[in-house]
Amino acid sequence: MMLVHDALELVQRFHENSEMMLDKDTCKDRFISYVFTEYQQEVLQQYDLDMFYEHLDRIQLGKCRIDFDLAVDRWYQRQYELFCEEGTFHDRLFTIVKEVLLKQGATTKEHLINSLTKFFTAPTGFMQRWMNDTKRSVGSYFYYVSKMGIRTYNDIEALVDVWAIENPEAFKEDQQELLAKRKGRGRPQNRELSLLIKHAQEIKPQLTPQEKERIRKIYYYYRKSLDMLGMIEKFRSYLLAKAKEAQNKKFTSPKQPNSIQVV
To answer: Residue 184 has what pLDDT?
Structure first.
């Protein structure tokens, strides 16, 4: 058994062993219990109790309950940062949202969130489909879902928010009939976002996947506070900052020595 290097790694190990999605408050309660039961037992297989408490001190979990809560807070913050870095949700998740919406006939965002939560967490939902009578474990399932962008219950709410933004009429019965007839997979589109992407392509015709995701983020975060020109300026600033960063790396990278030819 390998000792963890820091508190965040221990929270991550706890999540991998929990085989479920947890909200932050529940995670805090169960994390401290995990440390002094399962993790302690693993450590004591190779070390004594004094070593265990010294180890907790080294990873800054040796003082009080606040240390444990802070570690969980930092882990959730890190998940949010990863979410921003990796470019939001996997396209397959939007197909799942549409599937659950039509199957359950959700009439409100809250209804859809509850239905999706059950679909992702119940043994008879997406988990059963993914396992498909194989030897895959429950822990592997939640790891797979996390790689698509669903790490916590809050991520399910965020996924529905994105869906609702791009499908504002999706909770109406007549619109669901149209959705059922519409073919195709992947993330949905709306007219305003498509127009924003079109304007961005006037600045840079060949957009990379990362740049397209940046446009989507700008739209999600600023659609209520900025007009179209304001969002375009945000994207232009992003491109300038990206170009400047690339230029700085070019000038600061070490020069390669000239090759020597042996005659």
So the answer is: 52
Q: If we measure between CA atoms, which residue out of 169, 162, 171 comes closest to residue 193? A: 162
Whether 120 contacts 21, CB under 8 Å: yes
253 in a structural domain: no
The CA distance from 16 to 18, in Å, is: 6
Q: For residue 156, give the 3-state DSSP assignment.
A: helix
Q: Name residues whose C-beta falls within 8 Å of residue 128's C-beta, 6 or more positions apart in sequence.
A: none
> Model's pTM, two decimal places?
0.55
> What b/e sequence results for 189-204 when a residue is b if at least 16 CB atoms lie within 10 Å of its CB, and e otherwise?
eeeebeebbeebeeee
| pLDDT surpassing 50 at residue 260 | no
Q: Which of 181, 214, 236 is the last residue of a domain?
A: 181
Average pLDDT over residues 233-252: 83
Query: How many Å apart are CA 261 and CA 263, to the nearest integer?
Result: 6
